[in-house]
Amino acid sequence: MDKMPRWADIVLIPFINLLLALVVSGLVVLYIGESPWEAMKIMVRGSVGSPYGWGYTLFYATNFIFTGLGVAVAFHAKMFNIGGEGQAALGGLGVAMVCLLIPWPHWSIALLAAVIGAAAFGAAWAAIPAYLQAKRGSHIVITTIMFNFIASALLVYLLVNVFRVPGSMAPETARFAEAARLPNGYDIAPWLGFSRSTPLNVSFLLAIAACVFVWLLIWKTRLGYEIRAYGHSQTGAVYAGINPVRIIMISMLISGGLSGMMAINGVMGEAERLVIDPVQGAGFVGIAVALMGRSHPVGVFLAALLFGMLYQGGAELEFEMPAVSREMLLVIQALVILFTGALDNMVRMPVERLFLSLRKGS
Question: What is the pTM of this model?
């Protein structure tokens, strides 16, 4: 029998971790001579207090949902895929090639092709570290982080020497055709107050569909059962007839494909072209999102929404409270990651003891 109910692991412990992170962040803000309460109000108002704030919050959250789901799928197979940055960058390359090389008649058809291109390129970039672990025993953490740097260098080379517009000094592709541009929040729901320039676009709905897909895959299919069984006990899974090479490869391909799909939001939906560093750290944030969300799609969605609020609210806080610099905002985000990740057991163990004592008392 578990030491505590499932809801406590998914909801209660992350909530306590988040509360502790916010308290410590408040002390940091107080130390620099500003009001923590005022800073919190500015962040909340800036992130969810207006259609403008919601547009950016959900835009950032969309990126984090894809990369968080990618990390979560690998987690279920007990693999630490920290190559989301590189996989998303290559996914952007797949999106750009699909959108630039084919004259699409409508954005919906272009979106379907972009999903395939982004997932295929992201999965292909994850396949090499997966093969090295499955066949050669290379550690997935080392290989995936190395492939982040390789992907970055490859993208720079291609944007400068292959895809750059002739006569332009900017290392970026040409803008996509009108038919390959995704509708944004204003096009879909203008009555909600979104402006024409809002970055929120239909890829947010695609991210929700990805959450449903991962839930069905992991908990409702035989493959998902095999992935979880392998993650819980590799020896037991092999004894039960599960092929470890197959599970490693499939899990990493799905993980890389989900991370690659992040590029649809930023490359196709917002920038409408491929630029240098289209990921902007979302691959690493996905690790924190998966940890905080307990590798469950609902938890990943909520954690991604939280980090979207931190990103957008932090930008507003930096503008309205100049004493809080960009570096200070990184400290606040790092504290959330610290308490929800590295210091998780500091909260988990007392909570487990509490539920164990309550169960014995009853």
Answer: 0.92
